[in-house]
Design a protein that fits this description.
The chain is 75% helix and 0% strand. The protein is mainly α. This is Transcriptional regulator, TetR family. Residues 26-45 bind DNA.
Length: 212
């Protein structure tokens, strides 16, 4: 029962923070949405701010684990690994798309929380992407180009559906939460990566992309 209550509060908080933002959401709103006593927010999480920060760190914990596991699956093949990272990270974000949007929006601000995330989780993300791209270049599988700009391009494509969902929805009627959209997007990304990195056309595709 305790874990069910905690989960209900977290799910309610994600919906409200996503819709109304941190400052537009009150503890009372969260308690009402979760159908729990307002005192349980403080009891389980220590208040609204602590709950919000927990949701952000929960997201990035899963995000980094997804990248690590994807790299280990194709440890000896940088080309397959970078595509696996893309595919699995996109699926991870889609599985919690409201939380992903909430977190990516928060990361556009300058705050203590954002700086902490930058120095921990995003530093790890940079390390993993940098290592993969360096490996591919050293082995001659990727063309040599400015590493900093390449990482920025690769990362932005990896999170774009969840940083700009309203743009996609209003202008193109595309929904990042839709499985068909994600398959189309990843098919395009696979071609884009091959062009960007100078990968050969016969590079194997990661598991899950055989649908194309």
């Amino acid at each position: 029962m305790r874990e069910d209550t905690r989960a209900s509060i977290k799910e309610a908080a994600v919906r409200l923070f996503h819709k109304n933002g941190f400052h537009g959401t009150s503890v009372r709103d969260i308690a009402k949405e979760a159908r729990v006593n307002i005192s349980l927010i403080s009891y389980y999480f220590g208040g609204k701010r602590a709950l919000f920060e927990l949701l952000v760190t929960d997201f990035f914990e899963g995000y980094i684990v997804t990248i690590e596991q994807s790299i280990h699956l194709d440890n000896n093949d940088a080309a397959a690994a970078i595509e696996s990272v893309f595919w699995n990270v996109l699926q991870y974000q889609q599985s919690c798309h409201l939380l992903a949007r909430m977190v990516h929006r928060e990361m556009t601000l300058d705050s203590v929380l954002v700086r902490e995330v930058m120095s921990t989780y995003l530093q790890k993300e940079k390390y993993f992407l940098e290592s993969l791209l360096k490996k591919g270049m050293a082995e001659g599988n990727f063309k040599r180009q400015p590493l900093d700009l390449l990482i920025v391009q690769v990362r932005n494509m990896m999170i774009l559906p969840f940083t700009s969902p309203q743009y996609l929805r209003e202008l193109f009627q595309l929904l990042p939460s839709d499985a068909n959209f994600m398959l189309r997007y990843m098919k395009h990304v696979t071609v884009w990566l091959k062009t960007l990195l100078g990968m050969s056309a016969n590079q194997k595709e990661p598991v899950g992309l055989s649908l194309f």
